[in-house]
Design goal:
The chain is mainly beta. The protein has one helix and five strands. It has a single domain, classed as Roll (Transcriptional Co-activator pc4, Chain A).
Length: 119
């Protein structure tokens, strides 16, 4: 399998990194490094009972990127990718994280700068 193909049945990790080809944690115990030639699942966040968000570091044609995609359960119980997602080039990830943190801060307020009361 090449790093451009996806193995939807590989399972995922709520914490840590996982190699999407083997389903194993992507960190080599003897080297202590992550092999970015393989797709690496870095997080899965449950969306609902049939869907999950998957964050992966992937490579395609020599370019590394972060793929944030919705996966859904198929008829055999495996998670498969949907068309709902975004691929972010490695050089844009930092700026996008800044924007997401700002969006999180706005969500924590009532849009007038006051802290949101969760009760």
């Amino acid at each position: 399998m090449t790093s451009a193909t996806m193995n939807p049945a590989a399972g995922g990790a709520a914490h840590g990194v996982r190699n999407s080809q083997s389903g194993r944690v992507g960190k080599s115990e003897d080297r202590g490094t992550i092999d970015f030639e393989q797709d690496v699942i870095v997080a899965e966040i449950r969306k609902n009972s049939r869907e999950t968000f998957r964050v992966q570091v992937r490579s395609f044609k020599g370019n590394r990127f972060v793929d944030l995609r919705v996966y859904t359960l198929n008829g055999t119980g495996d998670f498969v990718p949907t068309g709902k997602g975004i691929a972010i080039k490695a050089d844009a990830v930092g700026e996008i994280l800044v924007g997401l943190r700002k969006a999180g801060a706005v969500l924590d307020t009532d849009f007038c700068g006051r802290a949101h009361d969760a009760s």
